Amino acid sequence: PTGRHHVNRNQRLGESGSMIAALGISILGIASRTIPSATNFVGLCTGLSGLATLIVPIGDIAGAVFGLGAIAWFILIGLHLIRFQRQA
Fold first, then answer.
1. Given CA atoms 51, 15, 60, 47 in this order, what sign does their dihedral have?
2. Which of 37, 50, 67, 86 is the most buried (most CB within 10 A)?
3. Which DSSP state fits 26?
4. pTM of the model
């Protein structure tokens, strides 16, 4: 590493591991049609970009997409849960 913050593969795996949940929940949301399509799309993109952080040449870019996508996905899931609770 030359002056840049070096993130090893194990650290990236830990980061992307948390978004496997986004990927899984989005797949289940598509299958059950209980989560809005836009939320599922953001979750799929976020989960896949989290996994892409393991690929060293694109890890930094994938990490940025992963981080921003995670924020958006958590907000969208939260809004969905609030709406779902009000309907129940």
1. positive
2. 50
3. H
4. 0.78
Long-range contacts at 53-56 (CB < 8 A, ≥ 24 apart) = 53/12, 53/15, 53/16, 54/9, 54/12, 54/13, 54/16, 56/9
* Tokens, residue 55: 């690929």
Terminal-residue alpha carbon distance, the chain:
53
Burial (Cβ within 10 Å: 0-12, 13-18, ≥19) of residue 37: exposed
Q: What is residue 5's DSSP assignment?
A: P
Write the pLDDT tens digit of every residue in 32-64: 999 999 999 999 999 999 888 888 899 889 889
